[in-house]
């Protein structure tokens, strides 16, 4: 008996076409909506469109809307898995948002394309077929939100876009993919050991993110305070260090109960409080800054945003970011 897969389209390059002038643009009608017959042998497909947006246009509000659309469908009928087509620029953020705000055993798989639908070597339909193959695989259950691109399966918590144009853009630094896709099977070789879930109904709080650099000006954190952000993520140097010039600004935010989350701007490794000099991670930790373990800046920003907007009792943010 075939499984039932909910296929949700959100836009992105996978649903675009290149014009005669060479500009890749959204279509009035999503071309993928005509391709569901290619999936009929794999599953019974329930196909809907949540919205049709280039992924740089997607904000956390659209991510929450997508979550609500998906949950409404799942609650109203028997669904064995979900596949979401999405633009690649912010795909990792939407995937991570769904990872933190859903608590499902069924597979949730995001996929996209690096080449538009009418380009030579278009990869959209291929990735979509593979995403459905993963979603119907029994071993994909209980692994959290997955990203499927270019014959690989990645965890939403680990994967990131690493190239502006390569079809192999999605990688999981340090961890690698959790599965490989061949012509005949899906081979999973490890699974997550921990998942987190937070109930969120709205996103009224705001979180800023700043990349730290040599000689960073001290007044930048004053702007965060003046603009009344509710939290800030800093992509620190090395293991989570900052120039001395911004320490006063960090301390000022923390004193006003505005959480400061530190990650590293490095591609690999984990940020943690090690150095005790002025601006060193240990000093910042002692001031009350929180280190995010094993995630990049954009995901830490989403995690803080979700943590600040959680329904019910406020979260212990330090424990949340462990």
List the helices and strands and how they pair.
Elements: E1 4-9, E2 16-18, E3 24-26, E4 44-49, H1 60-76, E5 81-85, H2 91-101, E6 108-111, H3 124-135, E7 145-149, E8 152-155, E9 160-161, E10 170-171, E11 179-181, E12 186-188, E13 207-211, H4 220-226, E14 231-236, H5 247-255, E15 260-264, H6 281-287, E16 290-291, H7 297-308, H8 317-320
Parallel strand pairs: 1-4, 1-5, 5-6, 6-7, 13-14, 14-15, 15-16
Antiparallel strand pairs: 2-3, 7-8, 8-11, 9-10, 11-12
Helix pairs in contact: 1-2, 2-7
Protein name: asparaginase
EC number: 3.5.1.1
Keywords: Hydrolase
Question: Describe it for me?
Answer:
Helices cover about 25% and strands about 20% of the residues. The protein is an alpha/beta fold. The strands form 4 sheets. It has an 8-stranded mixed β-sheet. The longest helix is centred in the first third of the chain and has 17 residues.
């Amino acid at each position: 008996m075939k499984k039932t897969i909910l296929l949700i389209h959100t836009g992105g390059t996978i649903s675009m076409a290149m014009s005669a002038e060479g500009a890749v643009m959204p279509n009035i009608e999503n071309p993928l909506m005509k391709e569901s017959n290619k999936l009929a042998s794999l599953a019974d497909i329930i196909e809907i469109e949540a919205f049709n947006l280039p992924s740089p246009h997607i904000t956390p509000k659209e991510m929450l809307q997508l979550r609500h659309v998906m949950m409404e469908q799942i609650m109203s009928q028997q669904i064995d898995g979900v596949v979401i087509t999405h633009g690649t620029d912010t795909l990792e953020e939407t995937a991570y948002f769904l990872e933190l705000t859903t608590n499902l055993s069924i597979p949730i798989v995001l996929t996209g394309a690096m080449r538009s639908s009418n380009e030579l070597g278009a990869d959209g339909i291929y990735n979509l077929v593979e995403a459905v193959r993963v979603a119907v695989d029994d071993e994909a259950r209980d692994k959290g939100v997955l990203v499927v691109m270019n014959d690989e399966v990645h965890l939403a918590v680990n994967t990131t876009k690493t190239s502006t144009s390569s079809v192999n853009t999605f990688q999981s630094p340090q961890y690698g993919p959790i599965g490989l896709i061949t012509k005949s099977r899906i081979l999973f070789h490890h699974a997550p050991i921990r998942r987190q879930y937070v109930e969120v109904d709205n996103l009224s709080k705001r979180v800023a993110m700043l990349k730290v650099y040599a000689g960073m000006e001290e007044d930048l954190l004053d702007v965060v305070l003046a603009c009344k952000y509710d939290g800030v993520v800093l992509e620190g140097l090395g293991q989570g260090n900052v120039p001395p010039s911004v320490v006063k600004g960090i301390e000022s935010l923390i004193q006003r109960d505005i959480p400061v989350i530190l990650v590293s701007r490095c591609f690999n490794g984990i940020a943690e409080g090690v150095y005790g000099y002025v601006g060193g991670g240990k000093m910042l930790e002692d001031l009350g800054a929180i280190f995010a373990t094993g995630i990049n800046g954009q995901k830490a920003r989403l995690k803080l945003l979700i943590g600040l907007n959680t329904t019910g009792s406020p979260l212990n943010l330090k424990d949340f970011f462990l």
